[in-house]
Amino acid sequence: MVEVTLEGVSKAYGTTDALVDVSLEIRDGEFFTLVGPSGCGKTTTLRLLAGFEEPTAGTIRFGGDDVAGVPPEDRDVGIVFQNYALFPTMTVAENVAYGLRFREPPGGGSTEDRVSELLDLVDLTGMGDRDPDALSGGQRQRVALARALAPGPSVLLLDEPMSALDARLRERLRVQVTEIQETLDITTVYVTHDQAEALAISDRVAVVNDGRIEQVADPETVYRQPATRFVAGFVGDNNLLDGEIVGRDPLTVAVDGQRLVLPAGVDAAVGDRVTVCLRPEALSVGGGPSRFEVEVEHVEFLGDAYRLHCTWQGRSLLVKSGSPASGTVTVGVEPGAIHVLDAAGD
Amino acid sequence: MVETGGGQLTRVGRRGREWLERHALAVVGALTAALLVVFFFYPVFTVLLEAVRTPMGWTGELFVALFRSEFYFGWFATLVTAPGTAVADAGAWLAALLADPIDAIPAVTPGTMGLFVFTAVQALLSTVASVVLGVPAAYILARYEFRGRETIRSLTALPFVMPSIVVAIGFVATFGRTGVLNEILVAVGVDRLGVMYTLELIVLAHAFYNAPLVARVTTAAWESVDASLVETARSLGARPQRSFVDVVAPQLVPAVLTGALLTFVFTFLTFPIVLTLGGFQLSTVEVWVYHEVQQLDYGEAAALAVLETVVSLGLTYAYLRYEAAQRRVQRAVRPRDRRRFRAATPLARVAIAGYAAVAAVVFLLPMGSMVLASLTDASGPTLAHYAFLVQRQTEAFAFQVQPFAAVLNSLLFAAGTLVLAVPMGVAVAVLSTRGGRGRRLLEAAAMAPFAVSGIVVGLGLLRGLVFGVSVAGHRLQVTGALAIVAAHAVAAYPFVTRNVSPMLARIDPQVVESARSLGASRIRALLHVELPLVVSGVVAGAAFAFAISMGEFDATVILATGGDYYTMPVAIERYTGRQLGPATAMGSILLGVTAVSFVVIDRVGGVFDRG
C-alpha cells in the first residue's frame, strides 16, 4: 500500500485547462473521493494517476517516487470504469486472471486460487465460467472490481463505478466496496458526481470544481463547514443568504433587515459582507432565537420528514420539518447550526 | 345521409373500400409474392428443371457427367472415375512437392485444375488479396486522424453501387496493351507489359472491388473497441502491443472473417471481371455458363448453374449463420483517440505513405485511366467518343452494337426497374416489419435474390417466359425487354427493402397506435404516418435500384443475346478489346451514375451494409 501525492499538478488540452495547480495528499490505505459536477476535472485526475495521461505541470508521487513517464502497465494500479470494460471475448475467470498474466499472484498461490479467492470476495463464487454478457450490471461491476484487485495493486482507482446501476443496487454495492476496501486496506481513489455517495463512503472528500480543488476534508466537515460557496451549494441542500455583520457580542448578521445571531468564534468584524449557510434541517418550525416569518408554498413528503418549499422576502427557502405545514409559519434557527462563509473568501 | 336508390350501390362501394382498407396489407403482400414467383422463383425453378429433365424423362445424368468430368473437377473427377489413378497421382505429386516445392505447385488455370476448382481457388486468392489490401486501410481509418478521413471512410461503400463491368473496363484501360501503364512504360523506354489475361490481374481487380468491403467492416469493428478496454488491459500490466493482441484483435477477427466470407461468395460468383480480363484461358463457372448459353447448350449450362447456386446458397447460409453468431457490434461508449498523422512515428508514416501509394495504383489509377482514355484518342484530347454515343447510327456496326441504342435501353430499363422495384421493396419492408404470421418465411424468401446469380435468373427467364410458356392452353410469352426489367427489379428490390426496413422498425409503435385510436385504418396509418417517416429510406433505395439497373450485367447479357436489348454494360463488354474509346466513355458515364447514386444514398443516410 502506498500514499499518493499530487504537487501543483496542472493539465491542459490545447488551450483548455482541465486541472489547475492541484495539490493533494492521499494517505496510505485511505478511501479518498473526488466529487464534483461533470467536466470538473475529477476524471482527468484519475487518468493522470493511472498513467493514461501525463500532467502538463507538477509532480505525482506514489510512495514518494515520481511516476512521471511510468506507463500504465508499470504503475501498479487497478482501475474500474463506469461501463465495466469487461473483455467481451473472455470468460469471467479469464477477465479476473488477466492481470496475473503479467504479475505473480500476491501471496504466492496459483492463478486459479487467486481468481476463486477474488470471486469469493465479490460474492461471485462459481461464476468463473460465465460469459460477461450473461451477467447483470451489478455482477459485471463486481467482476471488474475483482479483476482490478487480482494482481494486488497498491492503488485502486474507481471511475464512477456505480453510475450505470439502479439506486437500490448502488447502495448495496457501495457497502460491499467499502467493506472490501477496509479489509484490503488499499489506497483507493473514487470519482463520483454524486455528493451523497461521496459523503457516505469516504474517509476524506475533495470537492472539485472547474479544474480546482475547493475543499479537502472528512465528510462531516465538508457537510457542516463547507469552505466555499460552491461546496455549500453542491453538497446537500442549503439556504445561502448574503448579509452584513451589524453587531458584536453576540455577533449578529443582518440579511435584508432580518437579524441572525451567529455562533461564537466566527472571525468577522462589523461591516463585513458574509454569506450565511442554513441547512434546511437547521431551521425548525417555532424554535431558535432568530426567527423568520415564512410563507409555505409547497410541501414534499420524503418518508422520514417533510421538505417545505417556502418564500421569505422574495427568496426561496428550504425547511426540513417533522410535520407538514401550510400558510405563514415562523421558523427559527440556533446560532450553533449556522455556518458563515466569508463573502470575499470564495 | 344515405340517399335512396343510389344508396345500395354506395353501400356496396363503401363496403368494398372498407374491405380493401382492412386487407390492403394482405393484398399488397399477395401482389408482391406473385411478382416474385413469376420473375424469380419460377425462372430459377425452370433452370433446375432443365438440369434434371430431358425429353426422355427425369435424370441426374447431367450432374453425374459434371462430377466425372476432368474439365470441371480436374483431379477430383479422377477420384470418382479412377480412384486408383487419382491416389497414385496425389502420391506422385506429394513426392514432387517434397523434392521441389516451388516447381510442384500447379499453375492456377482451369486447364490444370478443372473449371470448378479453379473458380474456388481464384476466389480464395482474391479473398486473401482483398484482406491484405483491406485490413491496413481499416487500421489507418480507425486509428489515425487526417484530412479526408471521413470521406475515404464513406467511399469504402462505393463498391456496393459500382458495376463490376466498370471495374473491368478500368483495368483494361490501365493494364491493357494500349493502356495507361504501357503508355508510361513506352514513354520511359521500357517494353510493354503483357499483364492482360493473367490471374494476377483478375485477383487485383477483385481486390479493387472487395478490399473496401473488408476495410469497411473491419474499420467499424476497430472503432467499436472502447478506450476503457485497452486502458484496463494496460493498467493490469499489458504493454501496448500485448493489449492489442489480447483485447483489440479478438474483436477484429470476426469482422475480418465476415468480410472475407462475403468476398469469397462474391468472387466465386464473379462474371464480368473474368469475362473481360480472363481471355480464353481463364474462365470461371459463371463465364462458362454464359459460354454454353451462347453455344445453345442449355442443359449443361443449367446443370452447371444449379451446382453453382447450391454452392453460393451454402456459402451465403454459412455467412448468415456466422454473422448471427457474432455479438452485435456496439458503439464504443468512449471511442479511443485517433492519433494525429503528423504525430505518428517516422516508421509508421513511411508505412502509411507506402500503403497510400499502393492504394492509389489499385483504386485511383483504373478509374483515372478509364476517364482519361474516354477523353483522348491518338491525336490528343477529344470528345469524339462521347459524341459517338449520342449519334443515331444509320448503318449497323460490324458487331451489331449501336451505342445510342445501348444508352437509351439502359435509361428505359432503369426507369422500368424503379417502377417495379420501389413498390416491391417497400411492400416487403412493410410486411416483414409489420406483418403477422409467416413474417420470417417471407423475409427469407424475399432476400433469396441476394444469393442467386443474375446469370441463373437471366437463364431461367430466357428459357421460360421469353421463349414462351403454355398456361392452360394459352401460349404466354414476354419480350426480352420486360424480362430484363424483371431481372433488374428482382436484383434491385432487396436494396430498397434493406433501406426501408430498419427505419420502419425504429418507428415507435405508439405513434401508429395513436393514429389507429384516432380512427385511421391500418393502411391509412401506414400511408399518413409511417411512410412519410421513411421517405429518406425510399429515396436511398430508389437510388440503389437505379444504379443497380444501370450496371446490371449478368442477367442482361444473357437476355440480350441475339436481341436488340443490349444496355451500356453489355455494350462495354462487346466494345472491349476492339474500341477502347466508346467502351471507356460508357464506363465513365456509368461511373458518373454510380457517383450520383452514391452521393444521394450517402446524403439521405442510406444503409450500404447488411442491416
Shape of chain B: globular
**If you compute it from the alpha carbons, what radius of gyration of chain A comes out, rounded to the nearest whole angstrom?**
24 Å
Number of helices of chain A: 8
Mean pLDDT of chain B: 86
Q: End-to-end distance of chain B, in Å?
A: 51 Å
Please report which band the strand proportion of chain B falls in: under 5%, 5-15%, 15-25%, 25-35%, 35-45% or over 45%: under 5%
Cα-atom radius of gyration of chain B? 27 Å
Gross morphology of chain A: elongated
Total strands of chain A: the figure is 20
> What share of the residues of chain A does DSSP label as strand, in percent?
35-45%
Q: Report the biggest beta sheet of chain B as strand number plus sense, adding barrel if it closes.
A: 2 strands, antiparallel
**Largest interface, by Cβ-Cβ below 8 angstroms: which chains and how many residues each?**
A-B, 28 and 19 residues
Oligomeric state: heterodimer
What share of the residues of chain A lie within helices? 10-25%
The spatial strand order of the largest sheet of chain B comes to: 1-2
Structural classification of chain A: alpha+beta
The main β sheet of chain A shows up as: 6 strands, mixed
Low-confidence stretches of chain B: none
Please, how many helices of chain B? 29
**What is the SS-derived class of chain B?**
mainly alpha
Integer average pLDDT of chain A: 91
